[in-house]
Structure to design on (282 residues):
């Protein structure tokens, strides 16, 4: 049985020794450990993986860890076993490139998740859900019905026990009503022109400006639009030889890659959020 522990707390001596000693006392073997100290904030971060020959009583383990270590070091922490596959809901609108990429990785076993449903404000991509035999829910969203639509979304998310949400080019602003239920558990993807080239046709605007680099950014969703903690980014070069069509194609390729990397990092418990920034472990 494998266990992953994520910890952040005020930086102080003895944390690593105390945690590894506790794992040893529980008859576990530490197989990976990575840590980071934010010197400016005085905060310690750690990700630790351990293996146990026996099945671990996780509630008991958490209770003892909390009592013996977490309280004394003032830790914010959690522990996860590899036996549980988190449930990932996908929200989409009309673009299918990110959706197809995630579903292909899921279908091949590359993504260690369950996908209980796909949700959209349009019916356009229902055929994709049918191809992968995944339930598809159509909940239209207008200015007048947004509150009611989000109530329906939350009902579905609770009904299916969803752990986190991926916005695979979901072209609607998610309100605090949903964000507050899934803090640091909603992953978004967008081009990296923001805020320079905001609007409906950012690639056309970038082409007209003659940019030399385009990119994509995946981040956790917060109330500040497109300003949440960044999980993953990437860029590619373009030149005067490329057309607007080339810009869009390259941009969509990046969006697929960057979003899938961000989801993989989240599923592997390699991300920690602090002060609107992320610590990403290797």
């Amino acid at each position: 049985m494998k266990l992953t522990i994520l910890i952040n707390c005020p930086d102080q001596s003895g944390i690593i020794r105390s945690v590894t000693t506790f794992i040893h006392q529980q008859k576990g073997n530490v197989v990976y450990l990575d840590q980071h100290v934010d010197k400016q904030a005085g905060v310690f971060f750690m990700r630790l993986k351990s293996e146990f020959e026996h099945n671990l009583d996780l509630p008991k383990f958490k209770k003892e860890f909390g009592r013996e270590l977490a309280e004394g070091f003032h830790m914010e922490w959690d522990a996860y076993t590899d036996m549980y596959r988190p449930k990932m809901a996908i929200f989409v609108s009309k673009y299918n490139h990110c959706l197809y990429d995630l579903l292909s990785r899921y279908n091949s076993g590359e993504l260690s998740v369950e996908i209980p449903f796909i949700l959209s404000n349009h019916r356009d991509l229902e055929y994709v859900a049918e191809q992968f035999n995944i339930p598809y829910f159509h909940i239209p969203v207008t200015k007048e019905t947004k509150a009611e639509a989000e109530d329906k979304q939350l009902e579905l998310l609770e009904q299916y026990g969803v752990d986190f949400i991926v916005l695979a080019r979901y072209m609607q602003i998610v309100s605090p009503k949903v964000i507050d239920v899934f803090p640091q558990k909603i992953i978004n993807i967008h081009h990296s022109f923001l805020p320079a080239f905001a609007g409906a046709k950012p690639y056309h605007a970038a082409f007209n400006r003659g940019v030399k680099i385009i990119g994509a950014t995946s981040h956790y969703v917060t109330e500040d639009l497109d300003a949440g903690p960044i999980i993953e980014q990437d860029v590619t070069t373009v030149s005067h030889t490329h057309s607007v069509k080339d810009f869009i194609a390259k941009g969509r390729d990046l969006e697929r890659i960057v979003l899938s990397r961000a989801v993989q990092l989240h599923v592997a418990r390699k991300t920690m959020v602090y002060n609107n920034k992320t610590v990403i472990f290797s």
Summary: Residues 244-267 form the longest helix (24 residues). The longest strand covers residues 28-38.
